[in-house]
Fold:
Amino acid sequence: MYLCIVYLSRPTNTWPHKQLDTILTEFRQKNKKANVTGMLLYGNQQIFQVLEGAPEVVKSLLQKIADDDRHKDMEVIFDQLIEDRFFSDWSMAFLPLKQIDVLDLPGYSRILIEPIANVIADDNEVVDLMRMFKKIIQRDAHQHG
Structure:
């Protein structure tokens, strides 16, 4: 069994493209070593991140992220044991929110546009959102691969 945690947060500062590339490279290397998979959505001054892996590893990583001064207003919206990973092929898939119009995501857009403190998402809604983003990432990888 794996632990899957999804959280929302806001960056304390805007992450320029070059800084984001550096952060993603670092995260991907560390995640690969720790056998952690997941995805990161960033845009509109909001972060949506999925972390999957051994429960003790994911919990430790989440605490490090919570203690990181690059984040604020962190809110865990999904915390479940799962049999199969959603993002098993990616140490950290990335999708900039500007590439998609969150208002066109039927039924799910409120998670990504409401203030974090107002988000109350049920588990099915978060799972559906993860599946949808996985399809978008796979489609983009196929088109650019």
In short: The chain has a mean pLDDT of 80.
